[in-house]
TrEMBL record:
Its EC number is 1.8.4.12. The gene is msrB. It is an enzyme of class 1 (oxidoreductase). It catalyses: L-methionyl-[protein] + [thioredoxin]-disulfide + H2O = L-methionyl-(R)-S-oxide-[protein] + [thioredoxin]-dithiol. This is peptide-methionine (R)-S-oxide reductase. Residues 46-167 form the MsrB domain.
Length: 168
């Protein structure tokens, strides 16, 4: 079932025009979440984020960077459990919606309710829909409309932006 919120999230908002990450270093975008940090529940200073995150995590979550494909151990994570934001620990995705997209990035067809937000990303002359954490604004990845049923969406996520907790 597609609930109304996720339908709205996906419909019309998704324009897949490029495969993300062909040239990962070019996907860094300094503006990132900082420009709109006021509206997020969790806001930290740059120094605090540096303290909380590794350098690679900071580059992705706070500067909208992209990890190298097939570099995340979460690609091969097939246990039942939950994927949470590495910045603020908000639960983002259930393993029940994970699928193998063969892109080299952990991929899901639907986020958990009230977990992820999208915004239009026009960097590099492409129109993509950027996905970020609802609570801390951390950049997670992009969403495309070439995913599997039932939503047809592909949430292409950076493994470094998430932590995994297996179901107890
Ligand atoms: Zn977060």
């Amino acid at each position: 079932m597609i609930n109304r919120r996720n339908f709205l999230l996906g419909s019309g908002a998704v324009s897949a025009v490029a495969v993300m990450g062909l040239v990962p270093s070019l996907f860094s975008r300094r503006a990132g979440a900082q420009t709109t940090s006021e509206k997020f529940e969790i806001t930290l200073t740059d120094a605090q984020w540096h303290q909380r995150l590794s350098e690679d995590q900071y580059r992705i979550l706070r500067e909208a960077g992209t990890e190298r494909p097939y570099s995340s151990p979460l690609n091969a994570e097939h246990r039942q459990g939950e994927f949470a934001c590495a910045g603020c620990n908000l639960a983002l995705f259930s393993s029940a919606t994970k699928f193998d997209s063969h892109t080299g990035w952990p991929s899901f067809w639907q986020p958990l309710p009230d977990a992820a937000l999208t915004s239009r990303d026009t960097t590099l002359g492409m129109v993509r829909d950027e996905v970020h954490c609802r609570r801390c604004g951390g950049h997670l990845g992009h969403v495309f409309d070439d995913g599997p049923k039932p939503t047809g969406l592909r949430y292409c996520m950076n493994g470094l932006a998430m932590t995994f907790t297996p179901k107890a």
